[in-house]
Amino acid sequence: MCSRASRSLAAALAIAAIAAAPAALAGEQKYEVLSASVRATLAHAVNDRTPVDMKDLDTRAWVRGMTRKVQSQSRFPDEDAARDFLAMVRYEAMRAGLDPHLVLAVIDVESKFRKYAVSRAGARGLMQVMPFWVREIGGPADNLFQERVNLRYGCTILRHYLDREHGNLSNALGRYNGSLGQADYPNRVLKAWKERWALTA
User: Fold this and answer.
1) Which residues contact 35 (CB under 8 A, 6 or more apart)?
2) Cα separations in angstroms, 187 against 122, 174, 180, 194
3) CA atoms of 31 and 167, how far apart (whole Å)
4) Cα dihedral sign for 163, 69, 152, 147?
């Protein structure tokens, strides 16, 4: 009975947090009809549940180097939460063949690190993923407000757009934001990457 009440309270708090979260300024990823092979590839990527290896020396070194920076720019209650988040970012970025610093820049511009952010277009979470992606390549239990799920989807989608644009990062970012052909969004992400999230920033 107690656990049922706890679950109900947790659900109510999550709904309240979503309702109270200010709208993100993200754009809208456009729905597109995917070929069966592309859908299968993306579905395989988002359904991989391999755990993050927190003992990996490269991950630990990167997390250690980025913890203070991510804490100063974002909303983490303590250092452990920031470290766990960074380990997830690095894992999901590397798994998708992306630079984790770029992924941090996307999160910064898309949601300002607010896990419950919702855009006017309905995009959700840290990387502002549109819900249609869950129907297309995921499963009904996938919660885009859950950090790991959101990062996995966001990195997979950005990789998909990068492949579609044959490595053209500006165009891929434009697709991710639903503003292909406009320079504002790619320029904001690239500026955040260079000025706040690159190793030399």
Assistant:
1) none
2) 23, 10, 12, 10
3) 21
4) negative
One DSSP character per residue, 94-153 reads HHTT--HHHHHHHHHHHHTT-TT-EETT--BTTTTB-THHHHHHS-TT--TTSHHHHHHH
Predicted local confidence at residue 38, as pLDDT: 85
Cα-based distances in Å from 161 to 5, 72, 73, 124, 182: 43, 30, 27, 18, 16
Is 101 within 8 Å of 121 (Cβ atoms)? no
37 burial via Cβ count (<10 Å: 0-12, 13-18, 19+): exposed
Question: Which segments within the chain are labelled E, that is strand?
Answer: 23-24, 118-119
Catalytic residues: 110
Q: Say what the pTM is.
A: 0.83
Query: pLDDT of 96-114, one tens digit each?
Result: 999 999 999 999 999 999 9
- Residue 38's contacts (CB-CB under 8 Å, 6 or more residues apart) are 160
Task: Confirm if 18 and 116 have CB atoms less than 8 A apart.
Answer: yes
Distance CA 63, CA 13 (A): 30
Closest CA to 71 of 62, 60, 82: 82
- The owner of tokens 């955040």 is 192
Q: How far apart are CA 53 and CA 140, in angstroms?
A: 26
